[in-house]
Amino acid sequence: AYPKEQRTRVLSLWVMGVMGGPAVGPALGGYLAQTLDWRWVFWVNLPIGIISVLLILSFVRPVPPRRESTDFRGLILLIVWVVSLQILLNRGNELDWFGSREIVFLGITCATFALAFFLRGALIGAQNIINLQLLRDWNFTACTLLMAILGSLLLALMILTPMLLIEYYRWEIVTAGMVIGGFGIMGLAGGVLSPRLGSLLGIRPALMIACLFLALGWYLFSRINLYSGPAEILLSGALVEFGLMLAYPLLAAQAFANLRPEQHDEGAGLFNFVKTLGFSFGVTFVEILMYRGNQSNWNEYAGFIALTNPGLGGFLGGPGIEPASGMAGA
């Protein structure tokens, strides 16, 4: 609906709207949960939903419906494939992955239906529920895959940071919400600067700058410890969020640069589908790393609890503690 030269600007406005929620939500949710009750985190959506419905009825123009045939066979293959994949990713870590019969069954089901879906899509072309011929455009494919990878980084940030701040730093919910809300504010800034930077330097240099911000932010994150303060965590997360939102409008606009106007609807569906799959893989990968890291740390520390450890023997042999009773309690 917009000329090619305006797409990045329009997408940046859309990103600003999308990031408005992550910027305000954590701070508002933390305040409501701490001062009222955790249920208000959900109740607050009721007036917002009513306002949204009124705005839609007032400003969104109705589009006349069109009767089109639906590829129900492809839809069934897609549903079974994605649902089995999602269950596999969600329960794999809990069930020890392919050491479980359930995970093996889900893996076989996922692979079978995915293979059938892609083979059928290659044979019937544009008649498939998802037009896989769009993937022949390497520009579209590369931007879509890169967006999925960057999106997984965003989810990793938004999943790990609250757990770190509340469970390990023991911060108040309001403080944690304010810090995470600061991430979203920097994301808004990245969305504002994205079209200007893209038009000034070009897509590739602008994306390289965004990746530099991402690399710097994650590097700073790797340096934090349990003695780090709010400023250090805010700076690290803000750089990551700024880089992500700087790259998002550029990638989204570039992905559709070579597609014909009649392919934009199908391209948008495929773009978001691959992006969502990337989010799922990213969340699972982060959970695996966290679980394996916790297990490794637990095993390392548990190895020190042994009678052959002189430091432990000296600790248990302290004033008022019998070594035998101390080891029994341990």
Describe the structure.
The protein is mainly alpha-helical and 330 residues long. It folds into 2 domains: 1-41 and 135-292, Growth Hormone, Chain: A (Up-down Bundle); 71-128. It contains 12 helices and no strands. Helix 4 (72-91) packs antiparallel against helix 5, helix 6 packs antiparallel against helix 7 and helix 7 (173-201) runs antiparallel to helix 8.
- The CATH architecture name of the largest domain reads Up-down Bundle
Q: For the CA atoms, what is the radius of gyration? A: 25 Å
Total DSSP E strands: 0
The tally of structural domains comes to 2
Main sheet makeup: none
The CATH topology of the largest domain comes to: Growth Hormone, Chain: A
Order of helices and strands: HHHHHHHHHHHH
Concise account of the structure shown:
This protein has helices spanning 7-35, 40-43, 45-59, 72-91, 101-124, 138-168, 173-201, 203-223, 230-255, 264-302, 310-316, 323-329. With 330 residues, the chain is mainly alpha-helical.
Topology diagram in text:
Layout: H1 7-35, H2 40-43, H3 45-59, H4 72-91, H5 101-124, H6 138-168, H7 173-201, H8 203-223, H9 230-255, H10 264-302, H11 310-316, H12 323-329
Helix pairs in contact: 1-7, 1-9, 4-5, 6-7, 6-9, 6-10, 7-8, 7-9, 8-9
